Amino acid sequence: MKYIQAHDKECVFCSVQKQVDSPENLVVVRARLAFVILNRFPYTSGHIMVVAVDHVPSLEDLTPAARAQMMELVTQGMGVLRKVYQPQAFNVGANIGEAAGAGVAGHIHMHVVPRWGGDANFMATVGETRVLPESLEESYARIRAAWGAP
Ligand SMILES: [Zn+2]
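Above are the sequence and the zinc ion SMILES. Below is the predicted complex in structure-token form.
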């Protein structure tokens, strides 16, 4: 395996693309122009993100093929999350630009968040920290298996 020294300020979505998928980097599945990763700070269990391979800040910077592949992965992800979590609803969307609340503003990504009526009952909230009913490792294993990733 080639060892690549991660640059200190390298974007997290660029850096995980150089790694093998694992519960540490939370990469679930990859396609040619986009990939799927679990959110390390999920809003609910099963909160995934679909990330473009290219480091560009906005949808307009992508090719139509890359945009289409992102939407396809969003759609597949909803199917996978329905199977694993039986959510009642979804939030699907992107925060584009820092002022819109993008965590990694330089690298376009879309959120897919499974929702249940009364999430607040589903997740105990302690101060600012949401306590989820399962660990990230558990979510990773379940979502990857349901996606049919090797
Ligand atoms: Zn990047």
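The CA atoms of residues 32 and 42 lie 25 Å apart.
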